[in-house]
């Protein structure tokens, strides 16, 4: 259900109002400038292209801004375009690249004279400066995969999973010209997470389709959405900063199995959870590639030290012990400088019992920060 909001429900003291929201008449067909990069943005661009081809569409044209092709492959010999560029070129849309290696768009302008009516920004990665927004007749809108003002920032989906939220959603907001994710809310849709434990990639895909429909609906009714826009309540704002690799470091002596499994679902596809195996002088990093909470933890771990693991024949997995007696099951691993293997193959090579640990090279500051982050987690299903 789409959320339509009345501005008079909110106090306007201490709140800044976005400056770009001129009215759009019902008969306007919009020249859209789309800013986006990845698969999440690609789904939204495809939805706009579909809308453009619909009889009676509100969209006249779509041009695309994305980063230049990047070098990929083992020897960086291959040029790979962004996912949005691939869709744009296959649909004969004009594509404009951001400056190579640019850290910001300050001083950059779209290299044409088209008078665009609306900017659409989805998973772009750059802050759009005021001098670009001011050239857009109706400003710009942004699709953000959270229920703003909760989880402002680059990684809202991962934070919703990591913290065990019972719901998340998608917000269409006006693009603020001074701060990320601080614009007026044009529409929102709530999404329950209670059906099953969410995995980052699956939830991202689901939210991309919900966001695409919500975006098209918002553009079709842009004048009304702007009239009913809701200013964000700053007192409710929380941050969702970019995911860091050090969050993936396992510490069996300070975390529980549910925290490891929840962290795995949140960030494991980007940064697999890591531990070490072997003697201190010859420690090897091990990535635990698939984790779940076993229904019948191995009784052989009773009385063992945190980090101890044992092969569980019934589940065909390694059961790993945490400080509080909780256990996580791992079905797939990757040793440093080696390929990924099943838990069974790992046992064949290294034995059915053993001990994982924390790297002796891991900085105590990182350990402390990770402990503080985990203290803010709630177990999925408990809230």
Automatic annotation (TrEMBL):
A UniProt-annotated Pfam family: Formyl_trans_C
Signal peptide (residue range): none
Keywords: Protein biosynthesis, Transferase
Domain Formyl transferase C-terminal: 242-350
Any one GO MF annotation of this record: methionyl-tRNA formyltransferase activity
GO cellular component terms, A-Z: mitochondrion
EC numbers on record: 2.1.2.9
Positions of the Formyl transferase N-terminal domain: 31-218
Protein family (similarity comment): Belongs to the Fmt family.
NCBIfam families registered for this protein in UniProt: fmt
Protein name: Methionyl-tRNA formyltransferase, mitochondrial
Source species: Parasitella parasitica
Species classification: Eukaryota, Fungi, Fungi incertae sedis, Mucoromycota, Mucoromycotina
